[in-house]
Amino acid sequence: MTDDELPRWAARLSTEREARAWSKPRMAKALYAARDLRPNRTQVESLARQIRKYERGEHFPREWAADYAAAFGIGEVELFGRLDSVDDNEDVERRTLLGLLATTAAAGSLARDAAPLREAFEAGVAADANDRDADTWERVAHDYAHEVGWASATALQPELAADFAELARLVPTARGTAQLRLIHVAAQMAALMAINLTNLGEGRAARRWWRTAARAADHTGDHATAARIRGRAAIFALYTETPRLSVVEAAEEAIAVGRGDAAGAVNAYAAKAQALAELGRHAEAGDALRDLRGVFERLPEAVRNGRGNWGWSVGRLHFVASLVHTCAGNVGPALEAQDAALGVCSPQNWGFRGQIEMQRAGVLIGAGDVDDGVHHMTRVLEGLSAEQRGDGLVRGSALTSLRLAAPAQAGRASVQQARELLAATGDR
Measured between alpha carbons, how far is 114 from 96 in angstroms, rounded to an integer? Predict the structure, then answer.
């Protein structure tokens, strides 16, 4: 395609990039930065290849249009023109599809850089989404709910991002109940993205995804899902720098949204108990823990026995009890809750077990056995892989326990060494 035949938007992308003296890999990094993502080298190289095709007019950057506008600081309409005119041009899409097929076949590399090829095909045969699409995406969300928190957060992040982008393109094409079902899936997927980002230590980016998840849930009119997502957001805020009073307020909002639905509000009650415990309001935390036990008893069996991010097992109840008693200095009940939690936890669930062991260290630290507690903490951390040590939930639990050291003990060499170890493992 000659310069004269280039679509105006393709020439504009190239001109804007070159005006900033950005290479294509630098442009790729800017697009990822617009999403608050940290790509690895392979992801940058893959997107740089797509950028080359965008600038040759072979493929319109639907997935990255908003990010291009953010990276350049230019409105989407100004940058691309009327997007609907691009979307409605079936001849352009058909030529794009055939061109990519020919290019890829000629190169003999169907497996390499396959994402633009699939996107072009999807665009070329686009049709309104229906209930069968909703069935498919509900299974996708179900599978992710069982992977997030177990599988490598680093490996999951680009997969989650790619699938959410595809889902976001599909939702506007659906109608009626199919669209509501897809939005419900989007709420779950956005929440899982937020959880995964928290696991990666990206708390600020996670907050934006929690807002998206809550808005999507509200749109469905399902108050139980809206409460569940807000409650989970409050839980995971405990592993960020969010002020604990804000966590309490968020938990109370989620409880109100749930309208008495136990499955919707259980996470909120758990978050409230833990936040009050960390604030040192131990009597109120004890009351909140009793409320949580009452809600737990009302949970449907499917929720209590459910696995993954949407179930709420007795192990989670023991976890909350452990933290409440650990912060209050109730050594016996804390150790009892920790033993109970580990007793029902799968040996493969290294994250949950790691958090409980951090709380066990906190019991010793709070009781004045600072060096013994820190030694237990570092021994457990050093037994984990580098990625596992950097997990946001494990690190957050460790930092909570270190804060239980009395002011006179907080400057001890062992405490400082533990903080240095956590700081080092957080830089991934």
Answer: 14
Please check whether residues 18 and 120 belong to one and the same domain. yes
Question: Residues 11, 83: one domain?
Answer: yes
Q: What is the DSSP string of 277-336?
A: HHTT-HHHHHHHHHHHHHHHHTS-HHHHS--STT---HHHHHHHHHHHHHHHT-HHHHHH
Are 101 and 142 part of one and the same domain?
Answer: no
What does the block give as tokens for 156? 């999951």
Number of domains composing the chain: 4
DSSP calls for 216-278: HHHHHT-HHHHHHHHHHHHHHHTTTT--HHHHHHHHHHHHHHHTT-HHHHHHHHHHHHHHHHH
Coil, strand or helix: which one is 388? helix
CA 7 to centroid of chain Cα atoms: 36
CA-closest candidate to residue 239, choices 350, 358, 336:
358
Cβ contacts of residue 368 below 8 Å, gap of 6+? 406, 409
Residue 321 lies in a domain: no
Q: Looking up tokens 């890999």, which residue turns up?
A: 25
Rg (CA), the chain: 24
- pLDDT by residue for the chain (428 residues), tens only, comes to 555 568 889 999 999 999 999 999 999 999 989 888 888 887 788 888 889 988 988 878 887 888 899 999 988 888 887 544 444 444 444 444 344 334 434 444 444 445 555 555 555 445 688 899 999 999 999 999 999 998 899 999 999 999 999 999 899 989 899 999 999 999 999 999 999 999 999 999 999 999 999 999 999 999 999 999 999 999 999 999 999 999 999 999 999 999 899 999 999 999 999 999 999 999 999 999 999 999 999 999 999 998 889 999 999 999 999 999 999 999 999 999 999 999 999 888 999 999 999 999 999 999 999 999 999 999 999 999 988 998 999 999 999 999 999 999 989 999 999 999 898 865 44
91/318 Cα distance (integer angstroms): 60
Domain carrying residue 45:
3-106+116-124
Residue among 375, 384, 387 nearest 425 (CA)? 387
300 in a structural domain: yes
Statement to judge: residues 290 and 364 lie in one domain: no
Would residue 409 count as lying in a domain? yes
Asked whether residue 297 falls in the same domain as residue 351, the answer is: no
* Structural domain includes residue 171: yes
Q: How many CB atoms lie within 10 A of CB 427?
A: 7
